[in-house]
Amino acid sequence: MSALSELYDNIRCCEKCEIARSRIKVVPGEGAEDAEIMFIGEAPGFHEDQQGRPFVGPAGKFLDELLASINLNRQQVYIANVIKCRPPANRDPLPQEILNCREWLNRQIEIINPKVVVTLGRYSMAMFFPQKTISKIHGTAEKRNGVLYVAMYHPAAALHQGNLKDVIKADFLRLPGYISAYNKTAEAKEEKKESSPVTKQLNMFEV
């Protein structure tokens, strides 16, 4: 059993929140266990609750389109949510629910060890960009502790506000550039690290 499969079993047994009683299926997450890019949404909706998979409703179809626009698919990335059970009537996640599920999300990040974390929506954004607002930082990236964090609107926002659809598409098209820049920086650091012993050795003989 893989580390993720074992984690999924633990998540399915979780009943810390009241919403565990009304769920049909837990929605742990899905995708490549060694994915370089991890997308984190907010909470499962009706369709996700029915199938036990993240982003399979209308917002999920738009996410698939967005991934295709940058030559990616679900099998190449990892997709999860801040909380793993559907809130009644699709209400916003409560602070305690987010706190209760945080250990599951932290463990997912630890197992997958992504190079890039893309937050989808304000609740996932708040975890990694505290005190920021999505309207101001959407489409921007910040690197911390070797991980690149990119804030984006939730795909569902385009379904409720049609004017955001083009904004979200444009933000997604920036992602390959961010990843390319990240990889170049990482490669440069690795080359510098590998060459530094030689440089130090040469410096010993400088007059």
Q: Could you explain how this protein is built, in words?
A:
The protein is an alpha/beta fold and 207 residues long. It has a single domain (3-203), classed as Uracil-DNA glycosylase-like domain (Uracil-DNA Glycosylase, subunit E), CATH 3.40.470. Helices cover 49% and strands 13% of the residues. It contains 8 helices and 6 strands. Strands 1-3-2-4-6-5 form a 6-stranded mixed sheet, sandwiched between helices. β5 and β6 form a beta hairpin. α1 (3-12) packs antiparallel against α4. The longest helix has 40 residues, at 164-203. It starts with a helix and ends with a helix. Residues 198-207 have low confidence and may be disordered.
Secondary-structure topology with pairs:
Blueprint: H1 3-12, E1 30-31, E2 37-41, H2 46-51, H3 58-69, E3 78-81, H4 95-112, E4 116-120, H5 122-128, H6 134-137, E5 141-144, E6 147-152, H7 156-160, H8 164-203
Parallel strand pairs: 2-3, 2-4, 4-6
Antiparallel strand pairs: 1-3, 5-6
Helix pairs in contact: 1-4
